[in-house]
Amino acid sequence: MNLNKRFISKKENFRLEHTHPDLEQTLSQKIISWLPSAPREYIIVCIGTDRSTGDSLGPLTGTLLMKKKPRHLTIYGTLAHPVHATNLSDYVKAIGHQHRLPFIIAIDACLGKTSSVGHVIASQGALKPGAALNKPLPEIGDIHVTGVVNIGGFMEYSVLQNTRLAHVVQMAEKIADTFDLVDQRLTYDRTTPAVVLPQTNDHTLSL
Fold first, then answer.
1. Contacts with 61 (C-beta within 8 Å, 6 or more apart), sequence order
2. Structure confidence by residue, pLDDT tens digits, 174-201
3. Is the pLDDT higher at 100 or at 5?
4. What does each C-alpha distance from 73 to 42, 134, 140, 165, 188 come to in angstroms?
5. Which residues make Cβ contacts (< 8 Å) with residue 176, sequence separation at least 6?
């Protein structure tokens, strides 16, 4: 979870209401245009926790995207195996060790202005998760995609807990559909299938 105004990359290259009928097509084309010309391992890191409605956008997106069985994307962060504040650093290290030249796309929920709620925002550059809750977490991502799930600025924990699940699910479905289109448009094959990094519990990675 992060605050819209505290993105590492302050230039917003894409922003669109999640209910817009062209969201998936437009956002997938934008993401494809940002991918490197040389083949890389494309890693999707969906950040958040199923213990907070507002902060569940990431793991919901990861779960929905895994069900689509992507061929060119490796997914970390699902409802069953979330990537969250206590294990993010371990995932960052493990991804660096297990993947050759990873190109990371971070997905997270964020809080923002009233006029921004419901928007999907994407930009090149790294994201700082946990900014909304003042948690010192590592920056992550060559690209980041966030969904503004609620209003920020006051009692963030309470705001996250009182965010409507239906709203978060709708946004997660649109973002998952977007990356399904990205996967379909990638023209070369990877040898490594989409996987979830095994965990023994919420805090320990089993490598």
1. 46, 107, 172, 175, 176, 179
2. 999 999 999 999 865 444 444 444 443 4
3. 100
4. 5, 30, 17, 26, 11
5. 61, 64, 65, 68
